[in-house]
């Protein structure tokens, strides 16, 4: 019997590789003769870079850049001769800031633009930009300024590229060397389909977790709406209703406006890049998982992508998650054969977080045992 283990990370607990190891250990405790193939995954958010590196053995490039608060730090991206993989969280991520430093009114994506510029100067022709885990809600004006764009207000004064200034943009001045951007194919990977602004937009859905208060959330949302109007008027690009434009504090939309990027589902792209379809050709069973199974899962997270592909090949899909909010019918509808959660197998939340690896191992063992009985 051949089993493929292909989970995403459990955020703030186990990374995807550790989760693979725990599931594989449980399977082999049940039967050491089962062949287990590990295929850790990501959905285009934070952690994507490490996953791609494991599959593709990429070169690491480290660059001095500005963090979300304009402080100089070193950040890395991965590349081959002609392709670069850049993760926004590396340069402009929430994890780079202490709790008391987080406020997306005042943070910037400038450092991500610096990584892009470095990759371009090194001659890459395609750049995959992984959106997710950002500390920002600046719609990519920071990123754009690092690439030569200038944003000015009504008084012809240059604006600092932060979320608080989105509503003050009066004129966008393109870079003098815009030609270098036109020579690169940009693909933005996102794991959400939220629009740029509005009740489901970047600010209302994600700014609170990036430090914005109720008043600031409204200011940012109005700023994003104003930004979209300026982009439409001056650059001729309508980014208002594009699904995913609200990803990473509006960088989904900003990357379309400034980089002419193509927005793609993160998990679909990662599955393609890592040749997942080929890997499951002779597989009897797939184990996958992620921290939380909920409505966002149905919008294109790892579990959704894996189970949908497995469904087309009639391969049973077992899921181990941290928690699940979905109904049984929703779980079945996306092709999940069996689902167990760490929380339901724990005494309490504390045990679920402190003993995750052991519980995951135990759940994998139990699911194999149940399979034998069916």
UniProtKB/TrEMBL annotation:
Gene3D superfamilies the record matches: Glycerate kinase, domain 1 (3.40.50.10350), Glycerate kinase, domain 2 (3.90.1510.10)
A GO term for molecular function: glycerate kinase activity
One BP term from GO: organic acid phosphorylation
UniProt key word Ion transport: no
Pfam family, one: Gly_kinase
Keywords recorded for this protein, A-Z: Kinase, Transferase
Record carries keyword Kinase: yes
Family, per entry: Belongs to the glycerate kinase type-1 family.
NCBIfam families linked: glycerate kinase
This protein's name: Glycerate kinase
Biological source species: Aquimarina mytili
